[in-house]
Amino acid sequence: MSHLRFKEVELAFNREPVTVDIPKEAPSEYYGMYVFNRKAMFKYLPKKTFDALTYAIDNKKPLDITVADSVAAGLQKWAMEKGCTHYTHWFHPLTDGTAEKHDSFIEHDGKSGVIEEFSGKLLIQQEPDASSFPNGGIRNTFEARGYSAWDISSPAFIHDNTLCIPTIFISYSGESLDYKTPLLRALNSVDKAATAVAQYFDENVKHVTSNLGWEQEYFLVDEALFAARPDLIMTGRTLMGHESAKNQQLEDHYFGAIPMRVEEFMLDLEIECHKLGIPAKTRHNEVAPNQFELAPIFEESNLANDHNLLLMKVMAQVARRHHFRVLLHEKPFAGINGSGKHNNWSLSTDTGVLLFKPGKTAKENLQFITFMSNVMSTVYKYNGLIKASISSATNAHRLGANEAPPAIISIFMGEQISSILESLVNADKEDRLNVSGKSGLSLNMSQIPQLLLDNTDRNRTSPFAFTGNRFEFRAVGSSANCASAMIAVNSALAEQLMEFKEAVDARVAKGEAVFDAILAENKKLIEESKAIHFDGNGYSEEWKEEAKRRGLDCETSVPLIFDRYLDEKTVNMFQKVGVFTKVELEARNEVKWETYTKKVQIESRCFGDMALNHIIPVATKYQNMLLDNVYKIKSLFPHEKGEKIAAQDMTMIENMAEHMQFIKDKVQEMIEARKVANKIESQREKAIAYHDTVVPYLESIRYHIDKLELMVDDEMWPLPKYRELLFIR
Ligand code: ADP
Ligand code: MG
To answer: DSSP assignment of 260-278, as one string?
Structure first.
């Protein structure tokens, strides 16, 4: 009998914390030591080069190509002094995570030796042989060229003795093959569109920046237990496992004392983050046992996203040092909370104004209301697309489960903002807002800041919630690349703001005063989009019904949700704001459907193997023991007495037989369903087939396996149980 499980459990439970060497210096001393930041640039670049590079970064201009060699030389010197041997163009292909191909600095010196060399050409552009990254058919393999090009807005950094240069990744014909390219385009378009609107209120505004503060939730599992769960290794989640008697019902984990081993891990991780210039700030336990969160101080969205991707990698490495595995899957365990990555999103001007924050004067508040109503309208018009931007095979397990927002997008405004929006809509002509006066007059706009000081108005059930100076997009999944959500939201808002400006300008051209025109357009937007506004309990069944009545997108099938990317209005929007062409959108959807299929396929295969090779044999053995027992009882005791004594076991044997029969039959059916689906050519149809005909088996079969777990002798059960996986000491 395999007792591997017990060995693993023993190991896990007796593991001592790995203590971390805390640097003697204050974090401000080592913060960013692995980043080629301004300080490093200043030290390692000639003045002229430094000026050219910082000018390009600050003014969002391309780098003057004549200084590229000089930048490369400085960068190389800096990196080599820090022990780097290799460099890489670091990019974000359409898979989970990041990609990198390491090259060493050496070149032939022409005298049979080598020299260390890194040229401007190598810094700025490369042609990785990247034909096997998903591209949705944009690049046929015979012309597999893809280019990676330096994104100067995100600084180079050192990780694992390698100089990492953040780059975009595009095809020979210019289509984006990554997340970063469209993200930069979206940020650029929202900058332009929001600046134009902000200039109604302040002519000095030259740029608007999109900010992102993500909150990364994750689970930790001891590595020994992890290794004994093929499903965790293959899919990142437990495909089976009965819930433990105690899970999160006592609510004793949330914000509770952090276990020692975990605390050491967190400390180690934070030090790594700070060295890499990731402003990790907050850490705490989450709701579920063994669930935790890390949140940084928010940053400009592109940089914030680079930092999140880097963090996910660093986390995995640091966890290993502490004999943990990090689970970034959205739903590693059934029956308890899943993990999200709330995206706190805001816009700010280069004059220092947060555009989603109420101001002090009526004019500032009109600006605030203007951006609020434009966001509301954006989320209303594109609620299906916004949902598509966070949908995936893995996040599907989390959304709509009882502790996460449902697969319906709505917006939460809070009582105060709601009542202001309402009074704005109901105000009649005489109630005109006097924006020149000090106080907001008739609409009481000036009261907003005072009211908001008491910012306890929080709704944790909303997928898209206003939280005082930002929106918290909570439906984003823990393993996601935030770029997807940020591209959708910023692009759609850019289009909305462009339309808003056109409408206001048209009114002004007809002789209306600017602020009257703005007010009138705000009213229109708020009225038109009120169906998206929902402050109630997003987890309730009634809301699902209500959302349907309101005409919101209630689709739950992920492959069908992806269709929203190809709606005519979506394609037009992305083209208008210059973020995606139709070809890019179509290619990306091919990748999305294919990825969906593959993830479900892997789960289904792994599940079938575990059911047939782990569970059934063990259950059969145990059943045999029972049979043996019954047989012996009946042969020892007289007829009636024997029957009585063996009755319980007989029932158990029968029940087990039923469960096992079900499992064996249904695994065969599931395999057949996969075979049928695999023959389908179209990626979309194949993904739909996997969703409709394969996924349901995973749930229905699991039920019977989990029942067997309760029947079979604990000593024989091969897989670490939930109670073992979830409670670290
Ligand atoms: P909570 O869990 O209460 O929502 P956290 O402190 O865990 O709050 O996370 C809040 C996140 O929001 C942090 O990353 C923080 O930096 C970020 N944040 C705060 N203000 C803004 C803002 N104006 N724009 C974007 N992100 C913000
Ligand atoms: Mg939050």
So the answer is: HHHHHHHHHHHHHHHHTT-
